[in-house]
Design goal:
44% helix, binds zinc ion, Membrane-bound Lytic Murein Transglycosylase D, Chain A, 484 residues, 4-stranded antiparallel sheet, Protein Transport Mog1p, Chain A
């Protein structure tokens, strides 16, 4: 209740007042000073880039940055240290961090149709920054993360494990409310129009988001979709703004730049990149790092960029994690393990050198330690030397649960083995390619020609069409191919 009253206060102050005189705004909103915003952005940015990965295509990065910078310079806060990055994430999403740090996923880029739509998305995120939504949301989310599973298990001595996860969690939790989303939609369309991009690009984005939303189950939706209002509602609310903006010049003068945009989509990675790990039943396979691990039956597995985690659903305080040990210190695995575990605040209970599957050498130990708030935790960990790296595969649980889950930890560690090289060489990611719709084609027939790489409905949505529509004959469309 209280929160809604506060947000009402935010909407009531004009954008200009909020943007240029934040400190004179409603102090109850806990706005940061501009310097604090920038500092927070600069601190979060490297963590976010590390956790999500920056998409390795310089030309695409420069293109998105150039579109973003033109919009940002036309905003009320042109002098923020604006930065735009395409992150290597398959889900369709975009978000902003205070201070002017904007991220768009390759998954969302694949779903957009024109440069005007890209301008709509970036303009929307710029709007969250200029109107200081992101600063307010960040304050709330920082509080919300306190007590979350991973941070509470290992803080603060165990920073080597958790820093990036913490940042990832707080960003995942950034939630705007209805008023803020609608305001960002309006601002985004406005910035785009000011530069000359068709303000209807924002409407196209919302239509596509509505289709993605309708085709997904509600769990795990990215923040562009999971917040209310629903995309269809946002579209209705935005229509008047778009009409007003469009009346400023003849329709032929608005820039859409579809072809320029599509040139940058050619060969774009599409979907999860299996080279970076995939699940085959309970088995997690990592082609680039050449290993497989079998996690316990029924446990959820999350493949983060820096860490794979597995946890039993509905049970707090238990997790198995797998990651690379950076700069391993010591001449033997036993020394490496001793250095790493003591650095993270754990004492050895027992340990021995072992051979895992395929003869891979490891140091397998049991450790005890404490969380920041004094709770006792047990760790069963293997430091594994394989394929030129040292991996840490560790089960962590509160002492109260440790004995109960230890057999799962031990089995998971023993399941580690080298992947089949020949098989791994055949694993390739999917990429965006183009095709022309022939007479008689359906989304189904086009999808079939990809060899089942993409479902028909998804293919329609990626092309900005409803799944039950007919593909437009003679038109160039996006399709999916298995690339290198
Ligand atoms: Zn938003």
């Amino acid at each position: 209740m209280k929160r809604h009253i506060l947000i009402g206060g935010l909407a009531a102050c004009s954008l200009l007042a909020c943007a240029t005189n934040p400190v004179t705004g409603d102090r109850q909103l806990n706005f940061m000073s501009e310097a604090q915003e920038i500092q927070l952005g600069r601190e979060s940015d490297p963590q976010l880039r590390a956790e999500m990965g920056v998409y390795p295509d310089q030309a695409l990065q420069r293109y998105v940055e150039s579109v973003g910078m033109r919009l940002a310079k036309s905003s009320e806060r042109p002098d923020l240290p604006w930065q735009f990055a395409v992150v290597d994430v398959a889900a369709a999403n975009a978000f902003a961090v205070p201070g002017g740090f904007i991220y768009i996923t390759r998954g969302l880029l694949a779903h957009l149709d024109t440069e005007a739509e890209l301008a709509g998305v970036l303009g929307h995120e710029i709007g969250h920054v200029t109107a200081r939504h992101s600063a307010a949301a960040y304050t709330r989310s920082t509080m919300a993360t306190v007590g979350m599973l991973l941070t509470s298990l290992f803080a603060p001595k165990a920073k080597p494990y958790m820093g990036a996860v913490e940042a990832g969690l707080s960003i995942a939790l950034l939630k705007y409310d209805r008023t803020q989303e609608l305001q960002a939609d309006r601002l985004g369309a406005g910035y785009a129009a000011k530069v000359g991009w068709a303000p209807s690009g924002m409407s196209g984005v919302l239509e596509t988001l509505g289709r993605i939303s309708a085709a997904s189950d509600s769990r795990g939706l990215p923040n562009w979709l999971s917040t209310h209002p629903q995309p269809a509602d946002r579209l209705t609310k935005l229509a008047e703004t778009v009409r007003a903006l469009e009346s400023a010049r003849p329709s032929s003068e608005w820039e859409v730049n579809r072809e320029a945009y599509w040139r940058h989509l050619d060969g774009l990675l599409y979907g999860d990149n299996p080279r970076e790990g995939f699940l085959r039943g309970r088995e997690f396979v990592h082609p680039d790092m050449r290993f497989t691990v079998t996690f316990p039956d029924g446990w959820r597995v999350q493949n983060g960029r820096q860490q794979v985690t597995s946890a039993p659903p509905g049970i707090d305080g238990v997790v198995i994690l797998l990651q690379v040990v950076q700069n391993p210190q010591g001449a033997s695995l036993e020394r490496v393990a001793a250095a790493w575990m003591s650095q993270t605040g754990f004492q050895k209970v027992s340990g021995e050198s072992v051979r895992l599957g395929g003869g891979v050498p490891a140091y397998h130990g049991v450790y005890s330690g404490q969380t920041e708030n004094g709770a006792a935790v047990g760790v069963e960990a293997a430091h594994i030397s394989h394929a030129g790296r040292v991996f840490l595969l560790a089960g962590v649980a509160s002492q109260a649960r440790f004995a109960q889950v230890q057999p799962h930890f031990a089995r998971t560690i023993r399941s580690y083995s080298p992947a089949n090289e020949a098989e791994m060489a055949r694993v390739k990611p999917n990429r965006i390619a183009f095709a022309t719709v022939a007479s008689g084609d359906t989304w189904q027939s086009i999808a079939q020609r990809t060899g089942g790489l993409v479902p028909a409905g998804e293919l329609a949505i990626v092309n900005g069409h409803a799944p039950d529509s007919r593909p437009p004959v003679g038109r160039r469309i996006k399709t999916v191919t298995q690339g290198s």
